[in-house]
Amino acid sequence: MAAANRSTGLHIGLVFTLMSLIIAIVFAFMMHRSAADAEAKMKNETDQRNKAETELKQASADLQNLRQFLGYPNTDQIGKPDAEGDNSVIGQLRGLMTKVAPGELTQPTLSQTLQRVGQELDTLQKDQASLKAQTLALTEKVQSLRGEYQGIADAHSKAQLKAEEDRSEAQATKEKAVTEKEKELGERQSKIQELQAENQTIRNEASKANELSTGRISRLEKINEGLRTEKDARVKWSFEVPNGKIEWVDLDTRHVWINRGLRDNLRKGTTFSVYKQVNEGVARGLKDIKGAIEVTNVMEHQAEARITRDRISDPIVKGDEIYTPLWAPGRKEKFAFVGLIDLDNDGISDREVLHDLVAASGGEIVDEVDDKGVRHPTAGNINVGTKFLVVGNIPDAYEAKPEDKEPYQRIGEAHKAMVKEAQEHGVRVVTLDDFLNYIGYEPGRRIWRPGVSSTWNLRQGMQGNVARPETAKRPESMGTTSRAFTNPNAPQMESIGKPSKAFEGK
Q1: Does domain 325-449+459-478 match CATH 3.40.50.10190?
Q2: Which tens digit of pLDDT belongs to each residue from 386-396?
């Protein structure tokens, strides 16, 4: 039992020793392996450091080479990728890129910029090659044209030499001809001087004869004008014809009917002078005028008129001829007027009444000199279509008031000019009094007749016939009545011995 226990203890000690040896061996192996791993790791790290140092030296060398290649070997700072405008390599490169490749050629990187510049350079080289080809073609053409020009120039030189020879020959011929012509010209000059002397003598004689002829013509014109005026005043030539006839007369109502109406464009208010059935012709004088009428009603083929003037000794009867220069069937008569217009001798201008009178019968005033001596139109309008030149009162500028002298002088000058124009165009010149008698005008002096109840609107005591100024322009009556009617028992006033202007000169 004891031996068995000793064997067991031995076995346990042996096992324990063996286990310790194994653990020591394992521990030694593990320590050896750990040292080997550390030595390998250290060697690896040493190799990596050596490699990194080699790579760093290589990178530094490459960086220096890059700086050298880029042209900035002494610039230490590389700069940031977006560096611009500083002293770094990238900043200086960007400034150079912007300067060398401006505008669209500048790209974000140097490579792209160089590629863009290269493309642009290729395009320019192609264009340059094309231009070189065109230049060569143009050079060849220029050479060809030079050859042609040289041929033309040679031919021109030959022609010029020939022309100079011909010119020399022509010059000699010309000098000879000029010598002959100068000789002939001298002879002709002598002849001309003789003829000029004769011509001057003839001119002097013609001038004297012209002065004598002009003086004689002037005297004859004055004599002729005086004879013509005297003849016109005596003969009163006229080519006028009657405008119609009296068809029926009512002496009780003092109305007549004439053979003109709407079909003849007759207007209400037209006035006519009435002529004897046996007369020397209308518009030739006053001796054949027996009265005047004014149209009051117009029908298709007839017209009714009232008698405005007649003579008891020679009343208006059926068959009497009527006439007015203001109206003609189918046309408008044209007239010219010069001088002062006073129709009723009251010292007041009746020019507006005259205008209304002419217009009422369908006539037209185409040329007129107003009370200021101004002619309308300025250049005048008397021609063959003008029927009459009517001459009113031509005032004397020397006896006029100071403010009227200049207008009256202009009226006188216009009168002379218009009479001359009328004579040149064959226009008849008549006085205002004759004209008023021809048209049958009757100033507004009314005579009361038994049985006639007509009412009249008087214009300061008198009223013309149908042609009157507009109401706004018409002077109104002063409203005063003669003392003979306001106070019949008052003593009669004595005459002051001065007749009315209406009877002056009669």
Answers
A1: yes
A2: 999 999 999 99
